[in-house]
């Protein structure tokens, strides 16, 4: 039987091939920190998993894209990934969220973990899991042990290179977050932007979301208020996937780039997912370490 510990990286996923590097970079960082602990990816999006499985069954696609790892082509959901690890003798797990905010996706992930933790067999030796830790998202979660405001400050410090890039262009830094129509995550995004302005006072940092609040029109108003005419757009997303290539800088009339250009701004862009930035990947490694310590899981 293999060692009992394992790490599961819970990710929404992406179908954009170049964007995969943002996901794989986090896995690489986790494996470097714990070289003797298996690390597995799990995509929480049913649709994205189906697309990868269809591609895996297409011989022509496999020939055209030899760079795609088998673990992506055969990626599973969170429950299947955990079940397969348990079946191989891994009973002490850390499930690390790679979400940005503790919103809908993280809520569902936590429900899965809490359900698995609640399993009680009549004989203790048949318990499927000895421990399951749950690592919090980038901007923290509801916790009495870890203040979310501290996590936001840490994330802002990790993105110093973004502020430097905007500074070098004499531009305001405008992030695109995902947001959610059904969860009040907007305040977290706004607090993150405020911490960025606090740390890098010479760079105007603003954020809006694809869904929910804050919206792009509020950013436009703030840019005009500060007399800023040059803008650097960057995804505040784990990967530079479809939202980045289409909604952020796409040629269509309703992309953020098109809207800002029509409004009279000079628009630059940097299409790099947060997962590609080593300092951000390190935050997820640290969150996994903290979750492991709290759950009594020894990572090696």
SSE order and pairing:
Elements: E1 5-11, H1 20-33, E2 39-43, H2 46-56, H3 59-64, H4 70-73, H5 78-87, E3 92-97, H6 104-117, E4 131-135, H7 148-158, H8 160-168, E5 172-179, H9 186-199, E6 205-211, H10 216-225, E7 230-235, H11 242-248, H12 256-262, E8 266-269, H13 278-295
Helix pairs in contact: 1-13, 7-9
Keywords for this entry:
300 residues; alpha/beta; Rossmann fold; 2 domains; four-stranded parallel beta sheet; 13 helices; 8 strands; 45% helix; globular; metal-binding; sirohydrochlorin cobaltochelatase activity; Anaerobic_Co-chelatase
Structure description:
This is Anaerobic cobalt chelatase. One of its GO terms (molecular function) is metal ion binding. Co(2+) binds at residues 178, 211, 243. It is a single chain. The protein has 300 residues and is α/β, with parallel strands linked by helices. The protein contains 13 helices and 8 strands. The chain has 2 domains: 5-144 and 277-295, Rossmann fold, CATH 3.40.50.1400; 160-275, Rossmann fold (3-Layer(aba) Sandwich), CATH 3.40.50. 45% of the residues lie in helices and 16% in strands. The radius of gyration is 20 Å and the shape is globular.
Number of domains: 2
The number of strands is 8
Number of helices: 13
CATH T-level topology of the largest domain: Rossmann fold
Query: Any idea of the CATH class of the largest domain?
Result: Alpha Beta
On the 0 to 100 scale, the average pLDDT is 96
What Rg do the Cα atoms give?
20 Å
Strand share of the residues? 15-25%
**Low-pLDDT ranges:** none
| Shape field | globular
């Amino acid at each position: 039987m293999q060692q009992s510990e394992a790490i599961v990286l819970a990710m929404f996923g992406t179908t954009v091939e170049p964007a995969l590097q943002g996901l794989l970079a986090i896995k690489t960082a986790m494996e470097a920190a714990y070289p003797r602990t298996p690390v597995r990816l799990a995509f929480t999006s049913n649709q994205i998993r189906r697309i990868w499985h269809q591609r895996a069954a297409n011989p022509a696609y496999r020939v055209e894209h030899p760079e795609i790892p088998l673990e992506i082509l055969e990626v599973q959901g969170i429950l299947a990934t955990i079940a397969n690890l348990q079946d191989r003798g891994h009973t002490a797990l850390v499930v690390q969220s790679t979400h940005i905010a503790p919103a809908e996706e993280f809520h569902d992930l936590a429900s899965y973990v809490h359900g698995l933790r609640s399993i009680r067999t009549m004989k203790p030796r048949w318990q499927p899991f000895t421990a399951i830790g749950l690592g919090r998202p980038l901007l923290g979660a509801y916790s009495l042990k870890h203040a979310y405001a501290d996590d936001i400050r840490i994330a802002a410090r990790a993105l110093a290179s973004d502020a430097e890039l905007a500074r070098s262009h004499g531009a305001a830094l405008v992030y695109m977050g995902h947001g959610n129509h059904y969860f009040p995550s907007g305040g977290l995004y706004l607090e993150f932007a405020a911490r960025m302005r606090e740390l890098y006072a010479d760079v105007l940092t603003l954020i809006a979301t694809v869904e929910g609040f804050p919206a792009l029109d509020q950013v436009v108003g703030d840019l005009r208020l500060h007399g800023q005419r040059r803008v650097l757009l960057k995804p505040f997303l784990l990967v530079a996937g479809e939202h980045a290539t289409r909604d952020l800088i796409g040629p269509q009339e309703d992309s953020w780039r098109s809207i800002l250009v029509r409004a009279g701004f000079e628009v630059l862009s940097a299409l790099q997912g947060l997962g590609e930035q080593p300092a951000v990947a390190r935050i997820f490694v640290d969150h996994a370490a903290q979750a492991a310590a709290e759950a009594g899981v020894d990572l090696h």
